[in-house]
Design brief:
heterodimer; A: alpha+beta; Thiol Ester Dehydrase, Chain A; 5-stranded antiparallel β-sheet; about 20% helix; elongated; B: alpha+beta; 6-stranded antiparallel β-sheet; 6 strands
Chain lengths: ~140, ~130
């Protein structure tokens, strides 16, 4: 997939990037320690634990941020999360990202990224929308 | 349940570094004081998703499998959280609604860091709307 650094050229609705991530116990342990999450992980009847939903969203957003090589100082201004089903630790997550809004206001570009997180059998786990804003660099100062 | 209040947690630089490593987000606005002093905030700030995780943690504690199976969340990041500040998540039930809450993450100086809505739809009303 072509790397985009001119953010005005981000096409709405088109698949921007995709990636598969194995969210394993180590990743979750590190994540929960960092966010000081002391809640007990929810388990299924076999005792297999589920991934905290915000971790699924955070790893997906990071995939897009890496792909877009966003400028230093970019800010996260809004977040939506629709959880469709829980996902167990150790399962593969397939992320697909697309752009749903891209506009400029007061020299700041606002980009909304929709990310779908699916299982290896294409079952939707979560859809998210993240709005980020970055300084708009004019080509004609 | 009309009101949910989380335990407060203090956000420090070490946590922010840990989050950067765990999530892979090394934006210097979170980590580099020299860079951050030239931004509108003047110093490093915590990652938004790090702060937002406290909402999901709170709702997981209250609603368990229902939250992680079908929860909905829509939030705006209103003000940054700086190292050394404490945050508390508050969920307040909306009038006449079941499992639909206004949510806020409030700092110890009473500034609102995050505001928004969270809900857990009943099985027969699962839609994409909050």
């Amino acid at each position: 997939m072509e790397q985009i650094t001119d953010y005005s050229k981000l096409t709405l609705g088109k698949l921007l990037c995709e990636k598969s991530i194995m969210i394993d116990q180590k990743l979750i342990t590190d994540y929960m320690e960092a966010v000081q999450d002391t809640s007990k992980l929810i388990s299924d009847i076999q005792g297999e634990k589920y991934i905290p939903p915000m971790a699924i969203a955070a790893f997906g957003l990071q995939m897009v941020i890496d792909f877009l090589s966003i400028p230093k100082g970019t800010l996260h201004v809004g977040q939506e999360l629709i959880i469709e089903s829980p996902l167990k630790i150790g399962e593969l997550v397939n992320y697909e990202a697309s752009i749903t809004a891209n506009s400029v206001r007061n020299n700041w570009r606002f980009v909304t990224i929709e990310i779908l997180a699916k299982t290896s059998i294409n079952h939707l786990v979560m859809s998210t929308k993240s709005t980020i804003t970055m300084p708009e660099i004019s080509e004609n100062p | 349940m009309s009101k949910i209040i989380s335990k407060s947690k203090k956000i420090n630089k070490t946590d922010i570094k840990k989050y950067a490593n765990a999530a892979g987000d090394f934006n210097p606005i979170h980590l580099d004081e020299n860079f951050a002093k030239n931004t509108q905030f003047g110093k490093c700030i915590a990652h938004g998703m790090m702060i937002a995780s406290s909402i999901s943690e709170t709702f997981t504690t209250e609603f368990g499998i229902d939250w992680i199976s079908k929860g909905r969340l829509k939030i705006r990041f209103k003000s940054p959280v700086f190292p050394g500040e404490e945050i508390t998540t508050i969920g307040e039930a909306k009038k006449g609604k079941i499992n639909s809450f206004s949510v806020q993450v409030v700092k110890n100086n009473n500034q609102i860091a995050i505001t928004g809505e969270a809900s857990i739809p009943e099985d027969q009303e699962v839609t994409n709307e909050l």
